[in-house]
Amino acid sequence: MGSPVSPVLANLFMEWLEQQAMATAPVNCRPKLWKRYVDDIMEIIRQGTQHEITDHLNSIDPTGSIKFTHEEEDQGTLPFLDTLLVRREDGTVKLLVYRKKTHTDQYLDFNSHHPLHQKLGVIRTLMDRSKTVVTEETDRQQEVKHIKQALSLCGYPDWTFKRVQHQSNKPKPKKEKKKEEQKSKGMIIIPYVKGITETLERIFRKHAIATAVKPKTTLRNLLVHPKDRLEDSSKTDCVYKIPCKSCDKVYIGETGRTFNTRLEEHKKEAKNSKGSAYTRSQKKAAEQTENKSAVTDHIHRNNCVIDWEGARVIDREENRRTRWIKEAVWIRKSVPVMNRDEGGYKLSLPDNLMAANMCERLQNQATLSGEISEQPQSGNRCSFHPSEEVKLYCKQCNMPVCSDCCEDGHDGHPNTGIKKAAQERRSTVQALINEGRDIVEIYGSFIRGLEEKEKTLNKQKQQRDDSIIQTYDQMVQKLTERKDQLLSESWQNYSENLEKILTNRDRVLPDVNKLSAACDRAEQELQQGLFKFLSQEIALTELVGKYRGKAAPTPVQTQPAFFQPTDTTVPVLGHVMAQSVPSAPIPPSLALIPAAPAPIPAVSSDDAVRGRGHRLLNQKEGEHHHQRVTFGGEGSENGQFDGPRGVTVSDEGEIFVADTERCKHSSLRSYGRIQVFTMHGTFVRQFSTPPPFPFRHKYTYDPFFSEQYYPNDVTVDGEGNLWVVGRTCTHREESAVQYSKQGKKLRAFRLQKECEAVSVDTRRNHILITQIKDSRSNVQVFEPDGTLLRTVGDKSRNILLKEIVLIYPVSVTLDGERNILVSDSSNHRIHVFKNNGRFLFQFGGKGSSEGQLLDPHGICTDRAGNIIVADYGNSRVEMFDKTGKFLKHIVTDIKCPWAVAMAPQGQLVVTVWQEYGYDDFNNNHTVSIFHNY
């Protein structure tokens, strides 16, 4: 019976034997009841035929090796497996649990080193047997009492029985729900360490990850070694250590190949790199180009000798990511080290603090878990009277006490039961817990800010050291004056070549804009159908024919310079010489192209408002020094705006502006549009935003009527596509539309409320849209297909913070930690929420002082996590840190700033628009780019 297939073979044989026995049994020996479990059989037969049926069963096996014995009823009882059949006086049968005379009631001890669920499983199994086997209620109660007495002797406290009973009373989940839970759960196997494993299981359970435990150490692992141990040189997937003989530093590394292969590479690199005579600057350049390891770098910098014989493997791990983590841990543990970084896996500062404290916390929990989590009843002892159990709570002293304490130091004090006091103070403690977690989150943000500052400080130091070394080398060689002269000549050559390129571009760009605008108009008329596009055919034919005969512009011929060093002993770097290239003939057809327009001068403020133009400002504005480029102006031509409500910048540095034409200005067939510009304010292209869904008139279908759709905001998602939110002018149907960067519609979905702003969580590709409707304003989070995931800031769901109500959220963005920032113009505040919707804090408040806001609109964050707000009512742009503390006024001479966006290189883009009232002030309907602020 030692083979795994033995039970199967035994069951097959017994099935064959049963068939033969029933077919050939004598009539007087056939049983009235036949029950079998493997080779144990229970029969109800006629009295006096027991020996005959036994002989019949033994005669069936032809080999005669299978022999049965029988046990008869004794005083009305008969055991079968763990069931005892008892005959009543009336002839009926009742069932009890059967235990042999040698049974000792010894079960798994509660204090043994086993997971808690296995110990609870002992109770659950015995209780289930009492329910399924015992037939009468009085006998079942007696069986339960016996189980509790036996397990209590094995150390099981009362709370374990209550927990099993509570779990058994829970309704079983439906099959569909159980299948969904199983699909969403992962599985992780961890070694069992009492106290620590239970804590980890609770953490994984919160993230829907199932856990299974395995023994940490077994006798087989300690005693059985079927293979010889591998030498370090033959081990793969390892973390290794290389010590230095001259100092106490070590090098920690990891490799997926054999350790000997990687060690020989270290030796070869160190040997080949010896004796290299570099200057300080050459040595640094060589380290960057040759990609030397930290071991070789340590040898050269400190003239040390490496203990190659002392190199050894210190850890092994097949999973590459886990091996990186182990490498980082060994680097931390092995200080001082030669390593230049923290290994392939670098933890953030909060993660490091968590990793450093986790071992200590879990170790402390391991020693207390037996008392706290498994034996809470025995742990409620008074610290002043250990023999007494704490059952009361002193209201005057606010502390739990025992009966002796009430007589000694708390005589006459009002008290109550410990359970009642716990229920009364639960809400107070929970409020303190929530407040503490909020404070921890704020402190965590502060720590992460320190980490960013530390990175910036290290980077600045490295840059400063490089600059010092470079300046030192230049001073030693005494080539500073000649260097400036050569750079001047190089700049002159660059300026001449650049002038050629810009001149030719300015010659061609007007024609491109003209032809592109004509094609856009014809394409819009063509999409709207019927005869209006026919009027565009003549104009378009004439315009296309005009350019059809022209030859394509020829490539610009430049004269790039090259540097030729000299071999003279005089400290002269060399000469800048222009490389001559043959001039290309200009085709006669190019003479037909109109001459390039004259350069646009720096326009006045009125020019910027009334027509297209650019301004490059480098002056003192307010208290700060800015370099500003302003472009736009009111109008419907390319590069002009009617209502620049939204702005965003792509990773390639293209500025996308959502231009909204108001209904009173528009014809029936005009749409809003998205205009695209460079970071210098040059118009690139545009595309219209027609209604995303088909429209049919209320009473009759009018082919000449076209609903107008105007975009409110625009943003870029993680895939480089655009998301636009807006509404139709007549029927105010709200929707969100996804476009490609070239203006192709990709998808769209309808919205139920008035939408104002849109942002994208690029990490999860979730769409965040602010929606306004009466007192139910909020931020809704959607999947790209329009599925609503959750709502943020809805007052009906803010139970703990009822005063936090979004009235008119006009802008939304996410910071680097994926927190949601909402600009509420009617509240004059900025609200900050966690990504899951939990409120964190708010700042601002109505006013014009520092830190106060008046009708704030656009909001964005920079790379340092600072929050930038368009303070519309105060006509200024403000900067706050990530905790909401006021830092500075970015600009104070910009009236009615509407939207703000941050470019990848740190430039700030601001749109200016006054929606209602007089709009003849300077810079209305414009966009400004601040290159520094």
UniProtKB/TrEMBL annotation:
It comes from the Eukaryota. GO terms for molecular function: zinc ion binding. CDD domains: GIY-YIG_PLEs, RT_like. NHL repeats lie at residues 631-680, 808-836, 840-883. Keywords: Coiled coil, Metal-binding, Repeat, Zinc, Zinc-finger. InterPro entries: 6-blade_b-propeller_TolB-like, GIY-YIG_endonuc, GIY-YIG_endonuc_sf, HTH_animal, NHL_repeat, Znf_B-box. Residues 450-489 form a coiled coil. Residues 164-183, 263-294, 620-641 are annotated as: Disordered. Residues 235-340 form the GIY-YIG domain. Residues 263-272, 284-294 have a biased composition (Basic and acidic residues). Residues 377-418 form the B box-type domain. Gene3D superfamilies: 2.40.10.500, Classic Zinc Finger, GIY-YIG endonuclease, TolB, C-terminal domain. It holds the Pfam family HTH_animal. Belongs to the TRIM/RBCC family. This is E3 ubiquitin-protein ligase TRIM71-like. It comes from Branchiostoma floridae (Florida lancelet).
